[in-house]
Specification:
Length: 742
Amino acid sequence: MIAKHVPMKVARKSGFASLLAYLADAQAKRERVGCVTVTNCQSDQAAVAVTEILNTQAQNQRALSDKTYHLILSFPAGEEPPPAVLQAVEARICHGLGYGAHQRISVVHHDTDNLHVHIAINKIHPSRYTIHQPYRDHATLGLLCAALEDEFGLQRDNHQARQTGAASRAMDMERHAGIESLLGLVRRACHAQMRDAASWQELHGVLLAHGLALRERGNGLVILADDGTAVKASSVHRDCSRARLEARLGPFNPGPAGTGGHPSQAGQIRQPLRLRVATAALYALYQEQQQDAVQVRAGALAGARAQHKRLIAEAKRRGRLKRAAIRMLACGPFAKRILHAAAAKTLMADIERINSGYLAERSAIRSQHGRLAWADWLRTRAGAGDAQALAALRARGGKQGLAGNTLAGSELASEVGGAQAPNGLRQDSVTKHGTLIYCAGATTIRDDGHKLKITRGATQAGLQLALDMAVSRYGSCLHVAGSAAFQDQVIQAAAAAHLAVTFDDAVLERRRQDLLRAGGTKETQDEQARQPRRGGQPGEGAARRAAGAGAGVAGACAATTAGRASAGPRRGSHSQSDPGGVGGHPPPAARNRLRKLSQLGMVRIGSGTEVLLPRDVPGHMEQQGAAADQRMRRHVHGRGGVADWRDTGSAAVDAFLLEQEQTRPRLSDIPKFERYDGVKGLAVFAGLREAGGQVLALLERGAATMVLPVSGAAARRLRKLAPGDAITVTLGGVIKTKGRTR
């Protein structure tokens, strides 16, 4: 896990609302925004919480620095902690930075190869209105991440910085954009010659040949490009620091003014990062399209600017005509004053509308014809179906294979598959490492060229589409990796659809064949068991009797009986399922349960003249509650013959919660009841209820109402309280009021 603070260079450009708008923007992707959590705010809705945070920041007018702290938590590829772990990690890190009581909003993103969490924190304290800036937060974040990795069993990362801040940011830019930075350019093209230079003139000549210059800045030296980009000489290598260069070449001798190269020479010789595939043609096309985009954007902006000026001039001309007409009216000065004010108000509204339209049009032009980084351009091309761009993305360094619930070929396959979505799947997005994300209903599938990973919503229909794709990519023999539940789902889906697929694992293949011989999956058998029993096909009851006969003579004659039944209905046979003999296998709906004991449902089919009257139905049939399971326990010695109230408390709580959940659809004003969670602290007494002879106390804590079983003595004392009184609940579930234990 890596925790990184993203600072804003210009404080006036920082804004909590704009940051959250970016974090919560789905960008036309389904697999982007995950869980959104609001902490320490009055509202749980992010849009309302933003207004509250902005109002809190407005209370501090003295702070001139950035009032928003943007933190990113990134996890290794393939690691997806559950939401509870993510929330615990977020809380621990914010508390370690000193932001435990500060307002924050976190958003989980899934649209990259690495699961990451954005945390937007308000630096202004919600009650003291003071700003808090952590000291050496990068070191604190490293220590916190190392401790959390050990505590929650996460994959370990290196948290010791090996480079300076500027060099680290340059390397981040290279990995993000795919183009080498100025630091990378100097290291690749100039460092060896700089190390061999014997004089300052020779050193300046090496840099001038690449459109660069060596200049003094402060007490050190910087390497400067024509576009104003600078990098410290010591960041290239320790041998290039001013102290070591002067020790080797003597006192610093400034070079000639200017860099001596073409203004864009340094930018032209910067190359994309070296990949395993040839990208010269793609990069030439990228440069050509970027230059065309610059020209098209300039023309579109000029046209929008001219139209804006024309509309403003027309609005002002209409205003002048209105004022001239008002002056010619034969009315009093008071009426003319009102008309002039109305005309001025109309003119200002027109100008404001024209300016708003111009700003929106200019923003649309810049977003449509804006410059793209090399990696972003490759992603756009790959999403449009360019196989070469997809191959270039998959050849980038630092790529890790998919892990977890995956489908792959039985042997290591080369990168196959293109960027076109197979039938039944919708392509959602493409990551910067060439992983294609598909969506099929609730199922999300990731394809990196070697494996298919099912990340969310592993439904049977989605798994069947994934199996079809895997068969078309890797052949009929597949390798299934992941949890046991996922492997069972894959086998069920393959057997239900009768796919022409085999598995390289002998155990999984044997289970698939057993399901095929059994006539389908467990879900299919349950669906068949739920079908109406009357009006079935001829011979259906005989087939079921044969299936439920079990071992012995009945089992041996199952096929013969089913064959006779399929020929036609016999006299005296019914289409209903026969329960079979006692001691045989249970019916299909009751198979594969925790208990494998024989069971037999007792059903009585009455004649046509019998009618079920209301008096024959017990009163508790519509709202059945859970019965107490402790009524047969003997009293324990020392209790004075009184059964412990805790024995029946759990069953009473279950019965009460079940009754409330069944009543909720009919009465919308019933609050949400929950079982007491065992957390000690303050609560609000909300009354007493009784279920199955057991007294239950209702405790309000926040928005939830908890249900806690209490003893008879405690119930008598609680009846003296009024709803709304404050009470205290200990860790063991003991209620205290006014210093006395209840």
